[in-house]
Amino acid sequence: MKLSKFGEKFAAPSATVNLMDDLNSALNENPDMIFMGGGNPSRLPEVETAFQQRLAAILADADECHRVLGIYQSPQGDKQFRKEMAGFLNKQFGWQLSERNIAVSNGSQSAFFLLFNLFGGIMPDGSQRSIHLPLSPEYLGYADIGLCENFFTATRPTIDRLDNHLFKYRVDFSQLDIASNTAALCVSRPTNPTGNVLTDNEIEHLDAIAKQHDIPLIIDGAYGLPFPNILFCQAKPYWNDNIILALSLSKMGLPGVRTGIVVANEAVIQAYSNANTLASLACGNLGPALVKALFKNSDILGLTRHITPFYQQRSQQTLQWLRESLGDLPCQIHKPEGAIFLWLWFEGLPVSSQTLYERLKKRGVLVVPGQSFFVGIDNAWQHKHECIRLSYAQDAATVKRGVKILAEEVYLAYNTQ
Hints:
Largest sheet: 8 strands, mixed
Distance between the termini: 43 Å
Helix content: 40-55%
Strand content: 15-25%
Oligomer: single chain
Order of helices and strands: HHEHHHEHEEEEEEHEEEHHHEEHEEEH
CATH class of the largest domain: Alpha Beta
CATH superfamily of the largest domain: Type I PLP-dependent aspartate aminotransferase-like (Major domain)
Mean pLDDT: 92
Number of helices: 12
Radius of gyration: 21 Å
Structural class: alpha/beta
Number of strands: 16
């Protein structure tokens, strides 16, 4: 089979493909696998009930059911949903948005594929522009979606060592070098994989730098503000005319409806919508239909009051289990400030994180090796081969068993080389 350059790149194996294969195996084909890998959210009864009730109401109304299942919406998304979304954000944060500042995507991944390639890549004059990640490690789903090579650059973070074997990455502004061919800055907040939450000052500083260089700042809020609000520290939502804010319904408990939301200035939204027409023709209707009323009356915030404390408690419980199981092994854990993961750094690990992942998989535990998250960082930094991402979204007993097996394999790695 002969493939184009596009075909060779996008049909090839990648870290994202491997992650989703593992997720499918664990959740659908091998239910005995202890799944501590991908980003599937926890099942929360209060949240599921709210969506079940909304789905039942749609099915009970023949006209509404037809609007959801039987017609195309525009590639920008259902207009009424976008109006409710803009009104919600204006009411909560004082932003000046209309439906023209909102677009719907078929999941955040497809939104980032279009957004990154709208700004970065080969330019009309033959030059090339890149997307810069001010802090890496960053979401591995970004890594392979550029249409050309060397699509991302990144700044290596500083590492603050904290008490109780915790640490925190921070943007190293002293090394943040915005080149003339940088097309945009991008951060996730909270950061996937580490659970790091960039401070308000860091976000404001990055925004000022982006404006200075006349490039947008893209903020991936899939786990963040204002929903699903999986944050365990103080932080403010942030948007202005130079910000592209990407939100998602997945971590609200709706990963299956594949609904992302892009908030940006009208020119960006128009460009995105045109590109989305070619890529997807239209957006899915089910996700917006399920949550439209929740934005109209701000009930979406009521759901986050179940979501935030659940993950905060689970993160602290898993942290305790890790400390008990790992004992005096040289493990540092990134301070859990949000998202649904813990990020573990095994200093001086005698094997690579990839090898540790493979050994754990044989034991029936899925984690994600860390090296793939260091998008834009070269392999010379040993730190990138000493980290793993661990999800704590499964039920508590499963997570506890997984932590025990993880500790056993880490102990063997340090003591049998």
